[in-house]
């Protein structure tokens, strides 16, 4: 049977240690990863001291500022030179310096994207720079009842029938009798925020759409959507707000919720909604998600569900398939899987970065690797 020291020698993978400590700082570790880190820290005093040095808030902030100005190749060497440990009398194991250099790099990549939109720095996790696919941006098309299509990213201020367009935003309210259907379409690599005629706000993710009248009736406010949308419904007790998505109906008065036809879920963040399908009906409370395929309610953290409205990817115990589905829509990429990835991912990444930055952070776990050819991303174990 292996000794304890032998088992932990095998754990001393600097990138893995860096990922665990970075996840500890950002609070994104799973229970199993937390236990793994605790076990590594407790194996000897050197590990404990290294953990304390690496999580010192002043040192981490200083390193992040420095990281944004450095080139990739010199970073690990310079990190080793710059590190100053608290204890002087006792020598630190040689591998602790190598681990410290790599740990700070992985911590930098983990935290850097949570704190800033700058994309200058690279943490050196991937030895060969991946080709890049640029991220999506605000882009939408408005299809009017006449069949006219307006690209909202480049149109100047104008008035068309019942609507005004100011700075690419649609403003309703000129004609309260306009019941003809309008449609906003978001392609891959697109995102758009819309204010409906009643004042309700809608966020539309990539590859999504919404259909609604130019003015709602006095009885109800009805819209039809596809893809992924988030609603903040204007309060109007006399007129329920109804969303039709695929074969389900979501009814609310004043509330906030996310609907996703890609994974067939409705997630409530505020208020109460009634979700119906055929002869089934259920009330959702904040923090609950309905999986409409299985017709099952589960308790969820809503931040990862709605992170896209804040232009973020946020993963909580997610499979690689769950991670890559929104990535492929946001970057308009094709994803191919080679081998089985059983690891579950946690983390937050700004969506404004090129896809290589996302993949570098995922590779930092040591459980997955990627190649990019054109617009195709291959996932490897």
Hey, roughly how much beta strand do the residues contain?
25-35%
Strand order of the largest sheet: 3-2-7-10-11-13-14-17-18
**What is the overall number of helices?**
10
Radius of gyration: 25 Å
Report the sheet with the most strands, covering strand number, pairing sense and barrel closure.
9 strands, mixed
Shape: elongated
Structure description:
This protein is α+β, with helices and mostly antiparallel strands and 381 residues long. It has ten helices and 25 strands. It has helices at residues 4-11, 14-26, 31-41, 45-54, 57-67, 72-82, 94-115, 302-306, 320-330, 355-363, and strands spanning 137-138, 141-143, 149-151, 158-160, 163-166, 169-172, 181-186, 190-195, 201-204, 208-213, 221-226, 228-232, 241-245, 248-252, 256-260, 265-270, 273-277, 280-284, 288-291, 296-299, 312-318, 334-338, 345-350, 369-373, 376-380. A nine-stranded mixed β-sheet has the order 3-2-7-10-11-13-14-17-18, with no helix packed on it. An eight-stranded mixed β-sheet has the order 1-8-9-12-15-16-19-20. It has a three-stranded antiparallel β-sheet with strand order 4-5-6, with no helix packed on it. Strand 5 (163-166) and strand 6 form a beta hairpin. Helix 6 crosses helix 7 (94-115). The chain is elongated and about 75 Å long. Mean pLDDT is 78; it is low at 1-12, 70-98 and 111-127.
